[in-house]
# Entry
Amino acid sequence: MKNSYKIWFKVSVVVIAVLSAILLGSLLIIAAGGNVLDTYWIIISGPFYSFRTFCEVLLRAIPLIIIALGVSVAYRSGIINIGAEGQMAMGIAAATAMAFAVEGAPKIVAIPLCILAGMAAGAVWGFIPGLLKAKLEVSELLSTVMLNYVAAQFYSFCLRVPLMDPAEIAGGGTGTAMSAKLPQNTILSKVVKGTVLHQGIWIALALAIIVYILMWKTSAGYKMRASGASSRAARYGGINVAFYLIVSMSISGAFAGIAGAVEVMGTHGRALEGITSGYGFSGVVVALFGALHPAGIIPAAILFGILLYSQVSLQLFTSVPPNLVTALQGVIILVIVSVQMIIDNPYIMERFRKRFFSRTKEAAA
Amino acid sequence: MNFVITVLTLTVRFSAALLIASLGEMFNQRSGIFNLGCEGIMCMGAFMGMLIPFSYAGAEAVPFYINLLGLLGGLASGIVLGLFFGLIVITFRAPQGIAGIGLQMLGVGIAGTLFRSYIGGTQSISGISSFDIPLLSQIPVVGKIFFTHNPIVYIAYLMVPLASYIIFKTPWGMKVRAVGTNPRAADSLGINVNRIRYQALATGGAMAGLAGAFLTLCQAKMFNADIISGRGFIAVALVYFGHWKPSRIMFGAILFTFAQTLQTQIQIFVPSFKYYEFLNMLPYVLVIAVLAISRESNKLGPSALGKPFNREMRT
# Structure
């Protein structure tokens, strides 16, 4: 085959990348005083111990899928949303507030209302950096990070004052800042009894289909992708780039808000400190790892669900601190972005061809 | 009056870490590299600043050179991470914004992992104590505000004119600005663009690492995984705020720290104020507001900021 070296080049780059990621992780495990093989084995095998543990993985995959879908919409439109952490917190606060407002309503009305509330709050929190970027050229990387801190403070305030569990105030509890248990009509039921997996998984899958249709089957999605691929060309083609920037960022925020609502209504049942716990940043990694496409994001989210679940099993079975998982995610981001650039670099590919394929070519000639 | 003096004294003291990190980030950005991983480098530096004195004598007092070694350890870890980031964004030409997030997670993750396995939990160290400058510190009011600080604070402020001199007056500084403004022109004049960028990243990394080590050794005298709490990101924002000029960056660092100190002191002096979360938000809102107002400033920045340089390709 004439261009077989291209395939070999790509394969070898990916293999080298995976090996170097594993190597970096191993160095870190050794530095932390753990056994490399044992640690990796626990990370990989932990979720497959039983059906229930695998449900734990899927549980973590739900917010990852939803957030990563939102991040991918923004990324494809040329704006990087690293503010999902804050947007999720706003979503949790709004969904919780709504849950107490619709107490007593039938479930079929109450749950969509809560999710809508979370979605709206997240969308507002995504709209702000989108507007700042489109109109005032404020780097979204900086504004979203700052808004994360603002949202975290606002969330703590909500837990401490307006949403505080009345039982805690009455002196019945320890004074922990958290909301009361959500009313039963707003709790997402479990998919399989006895496991932690809740109906949010269907919401996540439905959103994946919606994103696919939006981005690849509608003209709005086409315009967003065009703005992201080349904003100047898109503007020349008559696309209102600034408008689609704001829209995509709002959608991205809305998804993070939905993730927050689903997380509080399905997993925790009440608003607590630390629900977001890094999902916002992991969502970015998942989106990149899933090649910014719903079909890639779902398996990527399950893989990262395994990684996040290993934080639990590492603590149970090894001396390796769970913070390792954060570092591994960092390694994965760096490896992915490097691999993409190396694969797209014709110069390195040409050197690869000369180095390994020149002789066969001469022989063929 | 007492309140004002306390706020101003603490402002000068706490602005040092932000100032050092921002000046370092300025070198990165002047060379055209947007290093959002500053947070991770600072966290790693902070951990090194803890690890070295702690493994020598725990919470006991340690000789000064051990503390100095802690600062140097932070600095060295910063250089290593800076060069590693260079490998990703200069040699592999990866997109810098997202790679910076990766570096941030890597730095925070490594520091957290090693912290848990080598130190365990919350531990304190003796750290570097403050040093009152003789005579000058005797001046009423002004003396207390400016001359009763940690030696590193004075060094941080001396770095401002120094950084200004290096970036605007020395040949190396001019090369840094050249590769950040027009790498192709710099390349045609025989400047090795990638080498200068690596050097700038090492400088910036060293300063971010030092800033982190300063936080543990001089300010908090302990370490935990979120000791940096966004200072790295603020440092990046301050470079924009400061129009890539050391003196304005210093002004920004002081302004931000003032807002932060003011709100913590209000909480201490006025404990009856219940809605302190809104005070906590203020410094971050201030940064966003300033970035939004000074939009024209983007044009003053290095024009090749964030763009990888490819010698083989026409642009």
